[in-house]
Known about the structure:
Elements: H1 7-20, H2 31-62, H3 73-81
Amino acid sequence: MQMSKADKSDAxxxxxxxxxxxxxxxxxxxxxxxxxxxxxxxxAQLIAKRVEVGNRFRGMLTTFGIVLRWHECAVSAxxxxxxxxxxxR
Length: 89
């Protein structure tokens, strides 16, 4: 590889790489493919955050002696506000 960074030398270096067989053609994914992948990753991150917040919430409630199962976290705020779990303030 040459040390200078002129456009001409870059083009020459790329041509040598292609001739030597070090270059492998890579297909470009479609915009739809990128959009779908983005949506799946965003959904996975949201689910992870939901689980993290639920676990922290349950951990804080154990300080007051309230033990909830994992699936009860979604409705636990309503249950805590009710008389079922009175918390003195």
